[in-house]
């Protein structure tokens, strides 16, 4: 059972954020309280993916964390029985949580979970769908374009990439406004205190490096995608879809 996220409530020294065992233990609670409309985004993504997933189709979830997204997809009413799911993550504790959550499906071979650094993933399996949920922002900027090119190469024609990111906006006034609304959301909707928000922001400062929306779109274009759009946005949180033509 996932415990409530209190990681930043009682610490005395802030360190760089890492997806270690402590985070994995509370991650499901953390992400559901930290990402606005998290459950709705999961539902929308699943609906979109089913529009592009053929029989015996393959889905790669890069940065699969505890396997929540894969679980949502398998449980979708339109999910083909013979679809295959491959999850990659660079955190062994997160993958252990995913293995426990998806054990019935790993036993049948429908789900495969693999340890891998997204900054060095170059040879992805041929697939119909790739998911990058709030993961690209943790990849070093110098490695992001190579990762997206590897994704484009692995996708079959007509395949899709779903990319969710926390973003910056060009206008500094609006950027500050959006951040303020996000912090208010975390206080009023999620129950995080000001000190918890401040400590987590400090921990993420050198680890999570967001881009502007136009910078992410430019990366997609350089990777080879010619069709893309945003399908969801809440202030500085954006979900994008890119189709391989």
Q: What would the average pLDDT be, to the nearest integer? A: 96
Poorly predicted residue ranges: none
What is the gyration radius calculated from CA atoms?
18 Å
Order of helices and strands: HHEHEHHEEHEHHHEE
Portion in beta strands: 15-25%
End-to-end Cα distance? 42 Å
CATH class: Alpha Beta
Helix percent reads: 40-55%
Task: Trace the largest sheet across and list its strands.
Answer: 3-2-1-4-5-7-6
Number of helices: 9
By CATH, the topology is: Rossmann fold
- Quick one: overall form? globular
CATH architecture heading: 3-Layer(aba) Sandwich
Helix/strand/pairing category: alpha/beta
What is the H level of CATH, i.e. the homologous superfamily?
Answer: Vaccinia Virus protein VP39
Overall strand count:
7
Number of domains: 1
Largest sheet: 7 strands, mixed
Helices, strands, pairings?
Layout lengths: L20 H14 L3 H15 L5 E5 L5 H7 L9 E6 L2 H10 L1 H6 L2 E5 L11 E7 L7 H14 E12 L5 H17 L5 H11 L8 H11 L3 E8 L2 E7 L2
Parallel strand pairs: 1-2, 1-4, 2-3, 4-5
Antiparallel strand pairs: 5-7, 6-7
Short description:
The protein is of the alpha/beta class and 245 residues long. Helices cover 43% and strands 20% of the residues.
